[in-house]
Structures are given as structure tokens and as C-alpha cells.
Amino acid sequence: MARGEPSPADQELIERLSALGVLVSAAQLERWRGAGLLPAHARAWLGRGRGSVSVLAEESVAIAAALGRHARAGRDVRWTVIAWYAEAGRPVLPGRLGVPEPPWPAVREALVWAMRRSTAQRLVVAARTAAAAGEAGQDAFYTEAGRVVGRGHAGPAHPDVMRRVLEDPDAELDQGEDRRRRRGAVSLAAASAMGAGEVGGERLVGALATLMPGPDWSDVAADARQAEESGEFDGWIRAGAVDPLGLLEAAGPEGMAAARHAATVLAGIGGLYLMLGLGMPDTPALARLRTLLEESGFALVAAQMVPLMINPSGVVHALAMCLVPEIAALAAWLKSVLTEQADTGEGLLRLLGAEQDGT
């Protein structure tokens, strides 16, 4: 067989994938096999000295389809693995192949690799370095933090703000919302690595209120002032509390799968939360869910899961967040709210009066 010519089984695989709308080459299939992502074809012996032929397994079709959907020209295969892993945790759509799980070693390697090169990890490392470097190191941290946090979008706007712009493109917006979120993230990173006293009570509570809007933070602010007066405030946030890389490195396959499920739940609820801002009609059930989410203080977390779970570079951060017990508990609680509403027959998307109208 000439070099580069696909085997009959690979040719059949390429044709099967093409029928599914997934275009791959024989070279791609070989690269995926070399990376340990796509199994080699089994051999069937023809007997009587006629040799053997490769046989295409249905599992190979499903795996290659998942890889092909997420492969991009020039994209490191580790990003493809992360995207595949995220898809494997979603419900199977009607008429689509079930998505098998990628090999766990490849998943772990890809997630740790992605987090190590992320801007978020750079911020954590810079904060830890500053904690041991005195005043000069702290100044360098804030300079670096400004560069890191200043890039990209800080997260979705509140649905009311989005809807106001949709209905009136000339509406005046609060241009400082992104800046406050970015400053809040820097403050929490500094407090985690250098102690809450580095930030101060007022600034730390302000950061929490910006990143977790909804709850009344006045009691927390009073507690912070009292802790500062008594000299106990520096221990409010445990040093090293922010360690996304450590969370990913320590997680096993079961823990990561649970985090993926939590991230998927939060992204779905976050999407429903944001859809009001895109003009989706409100319903009583949706309004109650939105109120509960805002009162919990985690509305921004759920909303941010939507863009994070779309791209591989965001998936790694979503999974790290959902390895934190508090975020996993949030997802479980919100899922129980949805289950309770479904048990009472109150559909999230059912408009008021729909039963009477027969719609």
C-alpha cells in the first residue's frame, strides 16, 4: 500500500464521518492514533492464508466524529481533547451519536497544560511571588495584574441592562461595570496571596459585592471593620485559597466528571438567566428562578459559565471553578429548584395563561 493511502477501514471511516457532516483526512486519523486518542482498527483473519483485513468499529466512528467536530487547523490537539470532554458531558441530542468519554490521562494532561498557560494562573503566580517579595514585589503584582485582568471581556452584563440596550440602542450604560469587576478580581487575588489586610476591609467587601451582586453585604462590612479593629482581619481569606491549577491537578476522573456536570447545569441556568436580556418572553417560573439566583449572589457566576463552556480555553476555568465545593453545591441547589418546579407542573418556558389558551 502506498504511503499515505488510507486503509479500507479508514476509507470507510472517512465516508461515514462525511455522511455525518464531519470532514477528516487520513493524516488526521493517524495523528489521533499516535496521540492515543483513536483506537487502532481490529483485524479480521480471512483464513486459508489469505491474510487479514482491518475492521471498522462503531466506537471508532463516534470517537473520530467527536475529534473531527472540534479539530481546527493549527489547533493544539489538547484544546481538541478539552472540547471533546466538555461535549461528552452534555445530553445527547436526538439523531446524534452518543459522545464517548476521551481517555482520562489525555483529559488531565490537557486541562493542566491549559491552566498552566492561562492568564488566570499567571495572576495567581504573580500574587504568590509578591507575597514574598515585599513592597517592590507588591507594586509589580498590581502592574502585572492590571495587564492580565485588563484583557478581554469581564463577563455578561445584567439581563436588565442587555434588554434596555435591545429596546433602546441609545440607552446610557454604566461604562464602569467591567472596570469594577476587574478591580474586584485583582483585590481577591491579592487578598488570597498576601492576606486580607493587604486589601483592607472596605475594598475587599466592595470586591465581593461587585463579583457577587444581590445579597446585602452591610453585615459583612460591619464584621470586617470589627475584625480590622481587633487585628484579626488578615486571616479572613486563607493564603493560597485561589489555586485553580492545584484543584485540577488533584482531581480524579470522578471528581472532574462531577465538576463538568455542575458546570453544564450552571451554564444552562445562566443561559436562561441571560435570555431575558436578549428579548425572550418572561414567565413566572423564570422570574422566580432569576430572583433566587440574584438573591444567592451567584448570578454572575452562572452567567459567566455560558461563554466559558463554549470555548476550550474557557472550559478549563469553568471546571476549576466547579471543583470548589461551594460552586458545586450551588449547581446542585439550582438543579433541585428546577426539579421541584418540574414536579409541580410549572414549566420554565410556559407563559402565564398558556394552559387556559391551550398553548
Descriptive terms for the model:
359 residues, mainly alpha, 3 domains, two-stranded antiparallel ribbon, disordered C terminus
Count of DSSP H/I helices: 19
Summarize the biggest pleated sheet.
Answer: 2 strands, antiparallel
Which H/E pattern describes the elements?
Answer: HHEEHHHHHHHHHHHHHHHHH
Summed up, the domain count is 3
Strand content: under 5%
Mean pLDDT: 81
- Structural class determined from secondary elements: mainly alpha
Task: Give an account of the 3D structure.
Helix 4 crosses helix 5 (104-116), helix 4 crosses helix 17 (312-322) and helix 13 (244-250) packs across helix 17 (312-322). The protein is an all-alpha fold. It is globular, with a radius of gyration of 25 Å. The protein has 19 helices and two strands.
Secondary structure layout:
Blueprint: H1 8-19, H2 26-34, E1 42-45, E2 52-55, H3 58-70, H4 77-88, H5 104-116, H6 119-131, H7 134-149, H8 159-167, H9 177-194, H10 196-199, H11 201-211, H12 218-230, H13 244-250, H14 253-275, H15 284-296, H16 299-308, H17 312-322, H18 325-343, H19 354-357
Antiparallel strand pairs: 1-2
Summarize the structure.
The chain is mainly α and 359 residues long.
